Amino acid sequence: MHADHNDKRNRTLADEMAEARAVQAEGNIGRARTCARRAVGMAMREKIGIGPSRRDYASTFINGLYRMAEDHAFPEEVRAAAGRLVDRSKTDRTSAATDPVQDAEIIFKYFGVE
After folding, report:
1. Please, which pLDDT band fits residue 3 given cuts at 50, 70 and 90?
2. How many angstroms separate the CA atoms of 40 and 104, rounded?
3. How buried is residue 60: exposed, middle or buried, by Cβ count under 10 Å (0-12/13-18/19+)?
4. In the chain, which end has fewer C-beta atoms inside a 10 angstrom radius, N or C?
């Protein structure tokens, strides 16, 4: 039985990145950004903690990406990638991110995630 892409409950980081790559190749940057953010969130949960505990870096992966984008404990390249993944600065509600797959890979490399 193969995974239904509409069922997000059992998706893995690899599933999210496979979909991100596929839809980005089709030109759907918004969907690629969504998948890349979820994948990065999974890595963040494992590496720095995402959840309700006071020891967690952030309560949600979106909050974690916003925090990472401003946190000078991370290298500039990682902060910039996190910022692009959550940026929605254009008036048409699109993102400044043009390569969300690469942005996710920058963060994975920092965390040592393959």
Report:
1. very low
2. 6
3. middle
4. N
